[in-house]
Amino acid sequence: MASKNGRKRGLAAALWRVFGFFVVSAICGVLAAGLVVPGVASAGMAVSGSIKYFDNLPGDLVVAAPSQSTKVLSADGKTIATFYAENRVRVSLDQMSPYIKDAIVAVEDSRFYEHGGIDPQGILRALASNFTKGTNEGASTLTQQYVTNVLNESRLAAGQTGQVVLSGQKTIGDKLREMKLAVELEKKFTKDQILEGYLNIVFFNRDAYGIEAAAQHFFSVSAKDLSLPQAALLAGLVNSPSYFDPSVHPDNSIQRRNLVLSDMLAQHKIQQAAYAAAVATPIKLNITPGKQGCAAADMAVYFCDYISHLILNDPAYGASVTDREQLLYRGGLTITTTLDSRLQVVAQQQVDATAGANPDKWGASLVSVQPGTGKILAMAQNTVFLPEPGKFDTQLNFNVDSKDANGNDLNGAGGFQPGSAMKPFTFTEWLNEGKSMTTEVDASRRTYPLGFPWKDSCGKVLGGYSTAQKIAGLGTADDLRNNDEGYYRPMPVNYGLYNSINTATFAEAAQLDFCGIQKVVDAVGLHSGVDNAPVNMHQLGNLLGGTEVSPLVMADAFATFANDGTYCAPIAIVGITDPSGGKLPAQASSCHPAIKPEVARGVDSVLQDVLKRGSGIYIQPKVQDLFPTAAKTGTNNSNGSTWVVGFTTGLATASFFGDTMAGQSRVGQNVTINGKFYTAIDGYMLAGPQWANYMTQVAGLYPAAGFPAPPASMAGTPTPTPSH
């Protein structure tokens, strides 16, 4: 029974080939008459009618630039990452080896320069072979293949992946339309233009679209440098990129390559000696694997991720997220960023040295901003983007706001509590209100109950510190505490800041208008990293850094002190060009006066003392011995978030170490990091050396002049520094 059914199927197939032979032969006769002998075409009604039918088929083909790879570059021109849906770099015909041009014509369409888009002779030859041998030989010209690729590329660009038509899926209608479009295409473009377009669009490998990407992928050379055997191998690939893949099927590949070489010899494109040398050449692959997206970035993985979110979140690059994704992955953009690769290398080394592979997954990060421009110069953390044995992996960017770490998903870290690193902003308002840096305040006071007479001209102070009220269930915190005993006494304001005394900060605030503190914080760009809301300084806990702020935002705020009080919003993209050289919107420095210059100088003066005699005195190495440097340490109540944010006049850097896991609820006490046990982590212990080692190596790359001195009237009459 099976044998009988098999004979029936064989007979049906044979009849179908006969039918197809006559149908397509008739079409070819019409096309031959119309294209080759126009005078004959008008002689018969049947031929005339057929030509009319063919002429009425759609002939318009929009030849848009094919999808190209987008490159993200550092400020010094080094590749950070490449984005692509199809790995393609378009090159002109004169930037391709003459061997690849001759090879592709020889094997795919030897009559390319003779026909008008359709080759009736080739079609008849293929039909005869298919009929007599039962094979499935194609007869599409290079122009027809180009048409198919252009149509499919336009479908992919429109997100219509389900409508892509492969060669084996074409109906007679598809073939006729392809023929008509090929004829019309030949009227609009020269043969060299069509060949150039074809070689730039055709598929060679899943990581290589177009001849430039193929040359780079298989041989790590440019298309213009392809040798004869290399070009012949690549030309042979397009017939079946998987079957002739030299990395998977080398025997198939070399047989196909030699067939191409034989065709080139027969068509007098190469001489016998060149042919003999080429066929004797073994396949010598030098594969450069495709690197797509931030996971495969050459450097600065998380900065790359930040850049991608800047593009995907901004309507300036497309009305919808889909439009923006198409632009990023198919637009062939060159995105030039602010990143300084010299700083990035050092930043990555330092975060890895601090906590590169700790089993408890504590996080470390560094981010640098240039005062006066807002340019982000480095962004690093101690994790890997994809899982690796023995590594702390996460796709969460520790350095930026949640919206820039996870698109519009607010599940990102969104920053960390800055703790005492917030204290300089209260001190800024102190100086802003005309008070002296050396005025004595009562840092012995620890109780600020509900109903305390705070000054607030634009709101209401919320919260309180009173153990008695807490016991009574009135919703306050315990009495205010300092990190160390012995500081509950009157002291100069500057002394209270550089030694990071909590009770001194509250004693300052008791004499200030909270509305003024709020204005300072807003002016330097401080905001919640979770939801982008302003840090509410009317909430008492925020005087000591109770709201999560990202390291990037902290570095940028401190850059304002370095820049004589002028704030510049952070920027990361300084140029975007499309393949034709057109300019797309980029970021430009956006600066405004935020703090009076003399006030900024007063803050700088005290923050220099943090490193010389205050809470940062134990930080090693001593950066201040090399450059004029100012900084502030920060630690939250649980010791799970620790900081040093510091600057020269040319570089502001936030260094963070702490808990980056979901909820950020771990306590940084009784922990072992890199083999060393810590009873309680403080800002100067891990974040401090990380910051100092980094700044020691890179601060000199940017001008690090001395800080201008504050007015003598602001310094006041020095008060003797109390002993510890």
UniProtKB/TrEMBL annotation:
Claim: Protease is one of the keywords in the record: yes
Record keyword Protease present: yes
EC number: 2.4.-.-
Annotated catalysed reactions: [GlcNAc-(1->4)-Mur2Ac(oyl-L-Ala-gamma-D-Glu-L-Lys-D-Ala-D-Ala)](n)-di-trans,octa-cis-undecaprenyl diphosphate + beta-D-GlcNAc-(1->4)-Mur2Ac(oyl-L-Ala-gamma-D-Glu-L-Lys-D-Ala-D-Ala)-di-trans,octa-cis-undecaprenyl diphosphate = [GlcNAc-(1->4)-Mur2Ac(oyl-L-Ala-gamma-D-Glu-L-Lys-D-Ala-D-Ala)](n+1)-di-trans,octa-cis-undecaprenyl diphosphate + di-trans,octa-cis-undecaprenyl diphosphate + H(+); Preferential cleavage: (Ac)2-L-Lys-D-Ala-|-D-Ala. Also transpeptidation of peptidyl-alanyl moieties that are N-acyl substituents of D-alanine
Keywords: Carboxypeptidase, Glycosyltransferase, Hydrolase, Multifunctional enzyme, Protease, Transferase
An annotated Gene Ontology molecular function: glycosyltransferase activity
Residue span(s) of domain Glycosyl transferase family: 77-264
Stretches assigned to the Penicillin-binding protein transpeptidase domain: 493-648
SUPFAM superfamilies the UniProt entry points to: beta-lactamase/transpeptidase-like (SSF56601), Lysozyme-like (SSF53955)
Protein name per its UniProtKB record: Transglycosylase domain-containing protein
Organism: Arthrobacter ramosus
